[in-house]
Amino acid sequence: MAGGPMRLKITHRTEYRYDFPIQYGLQRLKLMPNGGACQSVQSWSLNIEGAREEVRFTDQFGNDTRLVSMEGEPHIVSVEAAGEVLTHNKAGVTGAHQGFAPLWLFERQTPLTEAGEGIRDLAASISGGSDIERLHRLMNVIGERVVYTAGVTDAATTAEAALTLKSGVCQDHAHIFISAARLLGFPARYVSGYLMMDTATEQAASHAWAEAHVKSLGWVAFDAANGISPDERYVRLATGRDYRDAAPVSGIRIGQAAEQLAVRITVEQ
C-alpha cells in the first residue's frame, strides 16, 4: 500500500436551498486543512455565497474555524472549499500532540462516546500485545462487528447505539473506536477529512476516522470503516473529541424555512 507522495485535488461543495427567507442562521465551518507530518497544503480556498463571514479563529483543537451568518434573501447559500494537498504515507503516525487542548481532555468520554455494556465488553476483549497491536486489533474487531450501512444512523447516534445496531457509517466506527480506546487508557480523538476512493471520484459525504495517542509515537490514526491506518489517500481536515467538535459544517437556523441540502465532494489525484 505504501507509495510515494500523492497530490490530491479536492472540491467540497455544500449548497442549501430554502423555500422561505431565513430569519437567522449561523454556520460553523471547519473546512481549512492544516499542514502536518502527513500532508502539506499546496493551495486552498473557501468561497461562500449567500452568507457573510462573521469571525474566524483557531479553536482549542487547532482547527481553522469560520462562523458565517445568513438571513432574509437569497434562498440559496453555497460553501465551496477547494484546493490541492500533497500527502505522505506515514503508516498513520501523525506525530506529537499540539494545540491548546491538553492530552487528558481526550481521555474523557463525551455524550456521543459514552461507553455502555457493549463497548465495555469490546474493550475488555482486547488484551495482550503492545499498544499498537492492541489498537490494530480493536480497529479490526470493530470493522468485523459493525457493517458499513448508510441511512441507519445519524449525526446524533451514540457509539453504544451503533455497536448495538451492528451497523453504521464511518462516523460510528470512529466513535466506537474512540470510546473503547479511552477505556483502554489511550487518549483518543475524532478526525474529519477526505479519502480518495479507488472506485469513485465523486462522493456524497466527507470521511471520518479516529486517532489514539501512543506514548512512544504520538498520535496514530485508525480507520475502522476500512480496516487500515490512513495512508497517502487521506487528507485530514479537523480534529476534536468527537463528531460535534470536528464536523466540517454544522449550524443552527431560526425560522420556518425548510432546508434542502446538497453535498458534492470530489477527490482525485
From TrEMBL:
Where does this protein have coiled-coil stretches?
none
Q: Which InterPro entries is this protein grouped with?
A: Bac_transglu_N, Papain-like_cys_pep_sf, Transglutaminase-like
A Pfam family cross-referenced in the UniProt record is: Bact_transglu_N
Q: Where is the Transglutaminase-like domain?
A: 162-226
What superkingdom does the record give?
Bacteria
State what protein this is by name.
Answer: Transglutaminase
Q: Which organism is it from?
A: Mesorhizobium alhagi CCNWXJ12-2
